[in-house]
Amino acid sequence: MGVWHGRSLRKPTGGRIRPHRKKRKFEMGNPPTETLVGEERKLKERRGMGGNVKKGLKFATHANVADPETGEVKCVRIEEVVKNPASQYYERHGVITKGAIIRTEIGLAKVTNRPGQEPVVNAVLIKEEEEEG
Q: Where are the stretches annotated Disordered?
């Protein structure tokens, strides 16, 4: 079944609202692109308004991790998702979202962008104590 972002056909009281027009294509939605840690990087393309193509990351292998102390940004391999405050389900299944804490080759990092909406994973290096507290 498709995702539809149009107005509900029911009033708060439960009564029916008679639609004045049919559903339109621009009211359509998409299920979320749940970015996972994978063996090979894979993108998911969606059609946007005006024929625009939106690219989201389906499987991620590497992340651009910034070190706030030195200011350096390194492209490092993602090992696993340690914590995801967005959802227990996402944490259990290893889904990467904004705010998720991932383990990389150089340490723990917090994701700062939305990989389901952008084709990269950007993160900031955090100390081990910050994650536990």
A: 1-34
